[in-house]
Amino acid sequence: MRLKFIQLLAGAALLALPAHAQQPEPVQIPAAVLRVDETRLPPLSRLDLPPPDLGFAGARLAMDDNDTTGRFMGQDFEAIEVTATPDTAAAEMQAILDQGIEFIVLLADDATTLALSDQAGAGVMVFNAGARGDNLRGADCRFNMIHVAPSHAMLTDAMAQFLMWKSWPRWFLIHGSHPEDQALADAWRRAAAKFGARIVEEREFEDTGGARRTDSGHVQVQAQMPVFTQRASEHDVVIAADEADVFANHLPYLTWDPRPVAGSAGLVPRSWHPAMEAWGGTQFQNRFERLANRQMREEDYQVWLSLRMVGEAATRTQSGDPEVLKEFILSPEFDVAGFKGQALTVRDWDHQLRQPILLTTGALTTSVSPQDQYLHQTSALDTLGFDRPETQCRF
């Protein structure tokens, strides 16, 4: 009876406290995700059609994860979701800035990402969750931008390490005719030189337009691709550089010579894959699928990881001050878990997030780079992409 009486007294005293004394107001930590949607032809495969919540679903999972810890630390995370076109992107960015938000995740192409980063200014931390251009980490780098999306150089280096491990050093490079295809082809040339492979021949697949998915499309492709690839120099593997998604997915099983295909089709380097199960990946995938009712894509993962970086910084510093969080994210003490078997950190010379790269088929993760035999004096992850001595970035 005495214990019950004391509990009643304690409850009455709690009710008598002012509301602000019972529950301090949480510190608000706002962010925004700005997705810039371009008008493009549909992908070659209907399986690749982008879902309406692409990227945003990753943001929602990140908010759940951040709030799981934040609610015990008096922190409240929020991420607004904004879609734009290239024509409206600047206005939408300004609307975000007018709200005083200092953490902005971008899903956009290279040129738009660069322009929006400049518009945001030095006081805002921009997370590049979509653009892969090496120039953004090089001559066009910006101090206020964190690159969570892996670069072309990281992806091609990851694949090059595996191909050299397989003793497939002779590459037949096929690239598209669009500028983004040419940029990716440059990354493949660099990777070949870096790891000792040899590009024995290059060919350009010209995009002439026309129907991409028709009833007779497979018949035309079945006749076209063997002819396009015949009489190539002796090679071990076909490398496809097809950022525009015009031809690469038609290459497997249709090349003149029976050779594996890698790059933009066949064995593909990715930041994430929906079949990834190692290092706690199964539980992570399940949580996303319950939330979004679909599988996680690379864009979802990259947006999730961007916002988790903010949440991790807030947890570790026990602060909601944007300046404190930004300083910590760029410090040597910062790291974040990404379900890839090791902590992920930010390179101080170009602000690229170090991360392993998954080498994947349609159904499985075949390997993860960096490969074990490639060593580095600081971090094996710095064998992927531009290392400190190679960078052209000057903040």
TrEMBL record:
Residues 57-360 form the Leucine-binding protein domain. This is ABC transporter, substrate binding protein, PQQ-dependent alcohol dehydrogenase system. Belongs to the leucine-binding protein family. Residues 1-21 form the signal peptide. Keywords: Amino-acid transport, Signal, Transport. GO terms for biological process: amino acid transport.
